[in-house]
Specification:
Blueprint (H helix, E strand, L loop, with lengths): L29 E7 L4 E4 L4 H8 L4 E7 L4 H11 L3 H8 L6 E5 L2 E9 L8 E9 L2 E6 L7 H9 L9 H14 L1 H21 L3 H32 L8 H67 L21 H22 L4
Parallel strand pairs: 3-7
Antiparallel strand pairs: 1-2, 1-3, 4-5, 5-6, 6-7
Amino acid sequence: MSFFTKRYHPPGTRPGTLALKGLPPLTPPRISLIDYSDTQLEEIEEITPEACLAYLDRPTTTWIHIQGDADPDTLNELGRTFNLHDLALEDIINSGQRPKTELYDEQLFVILSHPILEDDYGGTEQVSLFLGTNVIFSFHDGKHDPFGPVRKRLRKHTGRIRQKGPDYLLYTLIDLVIDQCFPVLDRFGSELEEVEEELLENPTKETMQRLHELKRDALLLRRMLWPQREVINHLMQDGEYPIDTEIKLYFRDCYDHTIQIMDLLETYRDMTTGMLDLYLSSVNNKMNETMKVLTVIATIFIPLTFIAGIYGMNFGNKTDSPWAMPELNWYYGYPLIWIVMIAIGGGLLYLFKRKEWF
């Protein structure tokens, strides 16, 4: 996961500018439409903005979804056709925005962070939503459409979604984005468990590197997901936002989920910090065990080396000096010294074992 994923204009660019010089879209945009009511549903996979206008005059709910990296031409056309504010469109093309809510005239604009599951977690992708009169616009800058489960519910007419208006559809989309954090956090927790087992069994430099990557991912996820609790809290408030009071009750469930997500992230962040300490402790303990073994070996050989040094000098073994070493001429002197050295070494081993020093 990269540290900085936001696309931006050069400093000093006029507000509302949609041009991205040198930054072509990664995924060509595709516009799809679903128009529904309690009794009927019409779905179009590929449609132009002009063709969408005919559905806005109907007494039904229209969901227009733009999948992929919307280019300036597409956004300009959508802005002119549906009167979308240029500042909101600028936030869409400059992906990586902080989750937030804005009210432009009669349109509610919401930005969310959508975490994705990839080999390296991949970071987050931006989801942008417009709520208007009987219409919802959704923008997702990734390769894959995250709203497949909502489309399936609409087709099968399950739940209340076909019986409610666009504000309930807004809740459904937001709820899906938030709930998709849980599989990411579940995988994150599994990764932490694997690293913890490695730390307890055989910590290596690769384990330390992996742990640092997990800690960085947890911090970046927290930075992108923390503001979403504030977004849901704003949508629950009475007053300015065009959301029915009955629908605001459902946002309480979303708010509870954001609290659970942040609790999990805080727990994982604390776990990664604790695992870093555990790694350092494991390395120190391993070093201490090694030093203890070497110390025991050195302690045993110190007296043996002293004895070998004494009898290795051979001072006066063939003289009549009273200070000569008479042991050097003993018939059993050599095996006797071996017995003494073995006895000293064995006695020290027994003493260390009895005191549980190893």
